[in-house]
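job 3f2a | input accepted
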Amino acid sequence: MDYDTKTDRRRLLGISMRVILALVLAGLLVAPIAVQADLKVIAVVDAWDVAQDRWEHSNVIINWDGTWVPFAHELTFDAQILEDPAVCSYDPNVEGSGTEWAGTFYYGLYHVDDAPLNAPGFQESRTWSLVSCDIYDTANPYDRGLVYAECVPSDGDDHWCVVETQDTVVECTTGNCLSEIITTINVNLDLDCDHAIDPGLPTAAGEICFYAQARTPRPDEQAGLPTWSNPLQARIFAESGDKTVNFSLGPTAVELAAFDAAAQDNGVMLTWETATELDNLGFNIYRADSQVGEMNKINASLIPSKDPGSTVGAAYSFLDESAVPGVTYYYWLEDVDVAGAAEMNGPVAARMRAARALPGRGRPAPMPSNAY
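job 3f2a | predicted structure (372 res):
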């Protein structure tokens, strides 16, 4: 009988423990979960290509002179409801609470290069905003068109777009940079949590685009430092993935109007003319004996700019006196700006004339010995 009593007690205790454990697990399943809401990163990042005058998302050409580079991408969201009390109120007793129109994402801009070390990249950002996707139809990327919301610093109030942190310098974890500047953006298009986009905004998220600008380094920020030479990137990322855009540096300080080579009796005359010389320091001339041959600099020192900072330009000439007659040469003109950035122009070709003997006079016949 004692045995049966103890057995019953053990059975009751086991049942009680299982019930308690089940209740605990059930409580965990219905407790508020502070999961950071997330944007679905499937839309590419676009930037304005100065060479083609249009939005591009691959190998974008940008100026590298302190200019502001515009960025844009279409906002897309996770289809599922992600509960985050910090973004939208969550009530465990209300089925489906939370909102699918809120999310957090990050913009990373390469800031300092690692090879060449300490080459400056993007310096700062501005104009974070939600705009109409009609911006892709504009001929002026600095005209944002219809702006739905400016992204404002966090102040505790509800806003459609909030900049949590801006241009925070962090160590790079990808790519060829030493550091990047990160900006954290919270977007919530459903502030009243009714599972619909708020009035004042388009009814479909695909009509809303995100816009910002990032500044390249000014000449004074590049002085004495190498120029970025590896792929430069901007990237948008969140929990669901990331997208990047790659940049190439465009023309430096000089807009070249003409570059020619002409053979003369005493060498090959190189002439060139500039249309503008913003921040131009000077020129170098390189020569090779074929278009793919080894290039050698033939000027002893930098040919200085005649009018640095000019928007009018100037004319130049240089005589290659070392050119060998009868040989075809190829020439390149390198323009160098005040920050040390350089760009090659050319080639142009010229063949120096072969040397020719001057016409001579025939030697007179010797006079006869008996000539008087």
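job 3f2a | Residues 1-38, 357-372 have pLDDT under 50 and may be disordered.
job 3f2a | closed
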